[in-house]
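Next comes this protein:
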Amino acid sequence: MTQTPNLALSYLMPNQAQKHVTVNESTRRLDALVQLSVVSATVATEPATPPDGARYILPPGAAGAGWSGYTAGDVAAFQDGGWTRLIPNEGWSAEVVDTGERLVFQAGSWKRPARFGINASPDAANRLAVGSAAVLFTHEAPSGSARVKVNRSGAGETASHLFQSGFSGRAEIGLAGDDAFRLKVSADGSVWRDALVVDEATGHAGFGVGDPQHRLDVDGAVCLRRPAGQFHLTNEAVDTALPDGASIAIEQFSGLILISNTVTGGVGLYLCGGGGAVMVSHVTHVPGTLSFATSPHRYVFTNTTGAAATYRFLLLRARDAV
């Protein structure tokens, strides 16, 4: 073997004449390859007056008298007034000055690094892996803004942030399968539930609703809690089924209770306070009766319609009970 296996540096032979020629040739190769930084990886025409020491990664179709016989991917180094061809090996890396990017020679061509790990091990699915207590993204002058972009190929794919516990998903926020903005949660990483859906066309927000039709569309009980003395709006129960004569307790408060019988369509509006309950209006088929129980203090609604029925309750609180 007359050359080293990696950088092709020539060995000195026994009794060799003009040993300095071989040494200088190897020194030039080392000067070209150690801390490899190339002017460009896209210049396809040989520069007329390159500075001494300039290096280029040749793109496909590169042409020039000094580059004759070179192939795409070769490193062309201008030294002592002439060009030297350096054929890269697997794993060589280079900094490209005109683009500010780093390239790695893999499988016969120069590529951007396919995986990168900072205190963590990347893999085929997670090509960028960071192990850190915190990760900071901050603005760069002159802009005062910073933005994280998550791009997908089309509406049927996913662009989201996934939050995990023990590498098992618990919450996900973003776009998943369509253009609606979603906040999803999971107890086990397998079964997911939409907690919030925002329609992309209307901006309508839905809780428990996959296709919200109103500015705020809620499927289920709603409770808007406020400090004592301020107004409340509470959907106390949704579709509560009561057999004939059965009751349901409603916590003590002062305000209005609207009760609807979802079977008959009957609606009753009660004014409550101080332990009393007065029906102020109703629609036919009054849904039942509302009374106050002193021990423990609470209002009790009873189905007195003579048949099983299903009810909904809507409470407007004037103040909390003391």
Notes: The chain is about 5% helix and 40% strand.
